[in-house]
Putative phosphatase
Amino acid sequence: MAIKLIAIDMDGTLLLPDHTISPAVKNAIAAARARGVNVVLTTGRPYAGVHNYLKELHMEQPGDYCITYNGAAGTEGR
């Protein structure tokens, strides 16, 4: 069965202790997306707290999603 979606928690998982994303993780996300896998960032943060990371990962287009507020809100790229 092919992987269709990867949902990644941000704090303590995606982000390094200094709140940056490592080049290896950026490359892995880009490779997954190039293979047609949907990558979704999930977080307890509000959208404003994730927007810059979405931008950094080029995940702010229609069809790109993030889950915020511990699952209370989902947002499509804008």
Summary: The radius of gyration is 12 Å. The helical segments are 10-14, 23-34, 51-56. The chain has one domain: 5-76. The CA atoms of residues 65 and 76 lie 4 Å apart.
